[in-house]
Specification:
Layout: H1 6-35, H2 42-52, E1 62-63, E2 74-81, E3 94-101, E4 103-112, H3 121-132, E5 135-141, H4 142-147, H5 149-174
Amino acid sequence: MAIEDEEAAQAEAMRRFSEKAEELKTNFEERFLHVLPGNHSPAESVLLAHLMTCTDGYEDVRFIYDWNRRPKFGTGTIFSYLPDLSSIRARATFAFECLYGEVSNQLAVLIDFVNPGERLPFKIDNESRLRSFGFRVIQFTELEILSAPDACRERVEGVLWDMQSDLWLGSESEKPS
């Protein structure tokens, strides 16, 4: 059946958008359910869902399963849940990397499960180790995540935007005039 007028054309466009939105929703749901380890907390589940749908201020972030197999060149922002950071003897609930060419900035997002808000030696050591390897660090408590997940996502998005902007502005300043 041929599309004969503008109204029919718009109806077809809306149908296709709905079809694509359902496809995207299904893909998000499948990835979300696939990555959860089974022993996750409600805070991890909520924050994962919010971070899977966040942006770096320019583009949507891209979820990857294996932090150690992330691309070393490209553009955009990737992130992983429960990344393997054993090579630097550190832990993070989420790790992000903003890429621009071969240059990158990294962010670790931690959920403070043990005595939330207390600066315990093992927490300080972990954060220091992450920072010494170039990570910026954000920490949330379970209560923060469960009571204001949008605010937590927006805080991460703000840092990602700063990181991505730093990369882009840095590359612009290196170009010859």
